[in-house]
Amino acid sequence: MYQATITEREAGQRFDKYLQRILPNAGSGFLYKMLRKKNIILNDKKADGSEKLVVGDYVKVFFAQETLDKFMGRQSSPYVENGYALKQMTEQVTETKAVRSKKAGKATDAASGTAVYRQAYRMLADIRVIFENDHIIIADKPSGILSQKAEKTDISLNEWLIGYLLEKGDLSDSTLSYYKPSVCNRLDRNTSGMVLCAKTLPGAQLLSGLLKDRTLHKYYQLYVKGHIVEEQTIEGYLIKNEKQNKVMIQPTSGFPENGTVPKQAVGKRGNTDDEKAAYIQTRYKPLRAEQDKTLLEVELITGKPHQIRAHLASIGHPLLGDYKYGDRAWNEKYRGQFGVKSQLLHAYKVVFPTLEPPFADLSGRTFLCELPEVFGRVSRLV
Fold first, then answer.
1. What is the pTM assigned to this prediction?
2. Mean pLDDT of 214-241
3. Which among 335, 13, 368 has a CA at the least distance from the CA of 193?
4. Neighbours of 101 (CB within 10 A)
5. pLDDT value of position 198
6. Is residue 274 scored above 90 in pLDDT?
7. Backbone angles phi, psi at 331, to 5 degrees
């Protein structure tokens, strides 16, 4: 038999989703059958799986230990009894691990998965925690670190986050099977600054809701080529080229509100008829004009990949250090004198809206993240 009490970490999700997390090797059809037969109950009552879990709910699963081990994807204590072959047991464990690995896309056992996270925490020692409460973490990501891994072998902020919580004792091997803390907004590898992370499911729901509704305001500081003297909001349509991992910006004139690229524009750009264009808005304010550049504050009204870099480049003000959308000769000047190797783009401020408990400690607050040292170096150019 298995029993557990729901904590803040698991609360807020549907009961059937919770069951699929703790019993990853059991099919959904089987789980619903067990619910109907009351072999799985919630608060000592029959459940259908659609219930939304709250803190204090308690779950009971009336399976034999061997069945639990099988569906949880963990190996029972080794034994050889009545001629039971070690080879057969090894094959069974291997098969269980393969199923678990396929479903989760992660390490094939809890021990090795935990080791990866702890290693990430040790390796990415430059990541700094700006704010932390029971539900979220705001982390300062240095340039050069991935927010989330692109390849299986990558080490990213996401792995660091879990390793950090394991080291603190806020997570354990067992709780990782219910919920994995994760990054909620991504920064490009070479963009530095604040990243919002969810420690719990309620934290993830809060942050995803604020980002979707655009009620959480994110601000960046960056250097662009040339002088900008007025605050302005610019708009356009962003079209992504998946093969080149690059975007193009088109003006809003001639585009319908649904964002579909008109056929008359297709031939001019070599796009396909069914390609979609995402509407974007970027607001910028000059903070300081220098010899050949301007320090800007930029607020993302919409948030699309490469939006700031491509949008400002499209109006003749590319980012300093941006070799994908920028001015190579200008970048090389700063690379040679100051070692600028990537775009100087830093997520330096977030502003939360008014919030109710249990998030009252975030309500209306502004968090700041100091600029990397390289910003100070390049500002001294005369």
1. 0.70
2. 94
3. 368
4. 14
5. 96
6. no
7. -60, -40
